[in-house]
Structure formats: structure tokens, C-alpha cells
């Protein structure tokens, strides 16, 4: 146990100095101020993509400490400011809430740094911030892959609390799915992503069958497999199909239809599976994504990405 704790603490204490070089959030952040009680009030909407995700107040901190003693041991051993005492829970919760404010505002480097300083309890928003930075702001593909691989490694090593947290579990599956899209098939197979991604999403959806992000990711994953190996091999070897892909997105939109990422993921999936045959639907989905008013930095980046994809769709039409 001691060896495990020391290894974990070593991971959690990795230098964050490199994060100071992260590019700043490129858009106006004034609309994403969730200071004070604004965070609690907006929490259900800010986290709607994750389904029913609890607000990290003092009661939540104490409950997690009671239900996950291993995580509490790690926090105590790392001297992270919380030893399980009720009088310490409020202060720890306030620090954790501040990390989430940084995530929603787009201060990703600060969110990672301050989150990891809280130990395993702050790792969830810290790695969420890193995932967003990797996907939208990383300077090149190599850095993007490195950051996503680090998210997976952090989550794997964090222990029982991460396995109980739906954001952490989604983040790991999301990182693997994004890597699987861009890595060569032999590498994806060697890493086991083709079995790990559906297994992890199945486990997450067994607990939260209406989580919009997980449902959209599953649909996107199936489309990505079809894109790489074709419909026949995809169905026979990996159990994916265009029909299942469509149903995952139907379920995601039923749960939440106002998430930019859901609509542009569906647009991508349509292109992967049907090519130019569904271009009109692709454009319609991208237009729906761009029409959404973002309520946090993540959604602002997603809307901007959807606008870029929409512009790319218009280029071939203009050239004909």
C-alpha cells in the first residue's frame, strides 16, 4: 500500500511548469464568470452533458471521504488540506469549486495546476481542463496525443475515487476515442482501445443511461470504426453499425439537444459513415451547433470548431 501511495503521489506531484506555456483561451471570457453562488445556481446546466453530476460542496466532500477511504488516504498522505475532518470540508470544497470555475472560464493551465494541488479529489477538473486544452488549443498533433495519453495515465493510477466519478470515466474513454481516430489501426489494436472504449462506455451508461456526452461519444466511436475498416468488417469484427450509431445520437439528443459537441459529433459521424450522401444533414447539424449560445469556455470552443467545420463544408459547394 505504501509503495502504491508513493507512486500515486509522485504522479500527482508532476511539475506543472510546462502548463505555463499553454496558450490562453482565445475568446472573451466575461460571460463565463461563475463566482460566488453563481456556480451552484448554474451547475445543473453547466454539467448537463454529464447527466446528474453532484455539486462539490462540503457534504459531497465528506460523503466521498466516507465512501472512498483509499482516496482519503491519498489526500491525507499528500498533505492536500483535507484529513477527513468536517471542519476542513468546507475549505476543501471551496478550493475544488474554484478549480471548476477556472475550467468553465477557460483558464485551463491554472485549473490543472490548482486541481492537482488538491490531490485525487481535484484531479477530475484538472484532467477535464487538460482534455479540453488538448482537443482545441494544443499546438500540434504530437502534443495533443501526449496530453490525452497523460489524462488516461492519471485516471488509471488514481484509484477507486476515479472509478466512481462519471466525469473521470467519460474523460478517459473520450481521450482514448480521440486517439483511436488519429492513430494507425495497428497501434490502436495493440493498445486495446477497440475493446476498452466500448467496455468503458457500456459501464458508464449502465450507471447513467441518459448521459448525453457518453451517448454521443459511443455514436462517434462506432462511426469512427466504420470509417477505418468499413461497414462489413465493422459489424462482423467490432459489432458496430450505422443503425446503432444513429440510435446513440437519437438517445443523446433526447437527453440534451443543446450541446454543441453533440451536433458536430453527429455531423462528423454522418460524414464518416455515408460520405457525401448525407451532406445536407451534415450541414444542418453543424448549423444547429453554431446557433447554440455557449455558457462556458468549453462550449465556446465547440461552437468555434463547428463554425470551422461548416466553413469547410461550404468550400466544395462554392467550387462547383
UniProtKB/TrEMBL annotation:
Residues 1-18 form the signal peptide. Keywords: Signal. It comes from the Bacteria. This is DUF2059 domain-containing protein. It comes from Zestomonas insulae. The lineage of its organism: Bacteria, Pseudomonadati, Pseudomonadota, Gammaproteobacteria, Pseudomonadales.
